[in-house]
Amino acid sequence: MNKIYTAGDNNPKSRSDCFVSLQLKDEGGIKINLKSKVKGLYGDAIENLCKNELEYFGIKNAEITIQDTGALDFTIAARIEAVVKQAIKTDKEFLLDILEENKYSTKKDDFRFSRLYLPGNSPKMMLNAGVHKPNGIILDLEDSVAPAKKDEARLIVRNALRSVDFYGAERMVRINQLPMGLEDIKYVASHYVNLILLPKCESAEQVKQVEAEIEKERKKHGFDYPIYIMPIIESALGVEKAYEIATSSDNLVAMAIGLEDFTADLGVKRTKEGKESLYARTRIVNACKAAGIQPIDSVFSDVADEEGLRATVKESKMLGFEGIGCIHPRQINPIHESFAPEKDEIEKAKKIEQAFNEATEKGLGVISIGSKMIDPPVVKRAQRILNLSKKLGLL
Question: Are strands 4-8 and 195-198 parallel, antiparallel or unpaired?
């Protein structure tokens, strides 16, 4: 008997996913067994998608079973492609049309206060993620995906980049630790990903490897949009090499710290007070500021503790961080509110901008408020605070 290949989620209580099994046959054409609560409404469309995809991959005789729990086309297509690629050797990709809304790039100095992690093999969590307005969404191929599901997750993430509307959020993909992560880049680079997160980064060479792989894909597919890089520092060695990493590429826009793995590397327990990681966090901030990129703090993992989250973000901001990770949409607003400029910051920024404008009008090369000299970086920061305040509706 021919082998049966499977992909997807076979839990009948799951939502917005499907479980697909494929058995190649010697004859008999294509037989489709569709089990779905929406078969009456969408059965023909699902079966047509299945037939077209199997035909695209040159499969003429097979029995395929789809147990659907409300999956959208991008998920069904990814699950079918996953079983096909287990069954036959092919480099072909079955790509659905990309949404016009997804053809956007981001900027190096965009605000990255919040980045929402989404498991790469769980399409149901992706569908409404953009509605919550995080600055960035992270389609995660690393820790949230079981080793046996990595190939399936790559296809889901690739299709999500093309088919899911994230409402303008910066679309990030956390690849696997190198060298496995280089294979991930092949699946996402040409599909309007905005930023690649490089986990467990410990050297500038690793950044350069990622950059080289992106450029290889750029030449292969001819895309011209920027893809930024954000290394994640998660070890003692990474902390000690922070500045080397932060200055390793012009495509770096930020560098993050991952405290769960970092404290494990130290052999200590992560605490709410964070004394065990203070050195590492300040080292990351200093390296980033010296390199002119954004320092991003670790995730706050206690979803139920909003007060603790706000306190952590305030401390983060005080240390110089410009963003923090989140694992639940309810964390987004508290993060944005806590990182937002405070009234005294806004008033001070107004005075600095006014002094700058008056000095410019008079042709003066020196800017001052009273007897205090104002350096150009201070003016730039003031303008950044005012721009952010306008964007957040505080002015």
Answer: unpaired
Q: Which of 188, 160, 3 is nearest to 86 (CA)?
A: 3
For residues 56 and 190, membership in a common domain is answered with no
Kindly report the pTM of this predicted structure.
0.91
In which domain, by residue range, is 363 found? 343-391
- SS3 of 382, please? helix
349-365 residue pLDDT tens: 898 988 888 888 877 76
* CATH number of residue 122's parent domain: 3.20.20.60
Answer yes or no: do 29 and 113 share one domain: no
Residue 52 lies in a domain: yes
Rounded to whole angstroms, how far apart are CA atoms 269 and 133?
33
- What are the tens digits of pLDDT across the range 289-326? 999 999 999 999 889 999 999 999 999 999 999 999 99
231-249 CB burial, b ≥16 within 10 A, e <16 = bbbbbeebbebbbbbbbbb
Q: What is the full DSSP assignment across 4-42? A: EEEEE---TT--S-EEEEEEE-SSS-EEEEEEETTHHHH
Neighbours of 120 (CB within 10 A): 30
Per-residue pLDDT tens digits for 15-55: 999 999 999 999 999 999 999 989 999 999 999 999 999 99
Cβ atoms 241, 206 nearer than 8 A = no
What are residue 89's phi and psi, to 5 degrees?
Answer: -95, 120
**What is the CA 362 to chain-centroid distance, rounded?**
46
Q: Confirm if 221 and 95 have CB atoms less than 8 A apart.
A: no
Q: Beta strand 30-36 with 114-119: parallel, antiparallel or unpaired?
A: unpaired
Cα 48 from Cα 44, distance rounded (Å): 6
How far, in Å, CA of 5 to CA of 21, rounded? 5
Asked if residue 57 lies in contact with residue 23, where contact means CB atoms within 8 angstroms, the answer is no
Q: Which residues contact 163 (CB under 8 A, 6 or more apart)?
A: 72, 73, 74, 96, 98, 99, 102
Residue 21 β-bridge partners:
6, 65
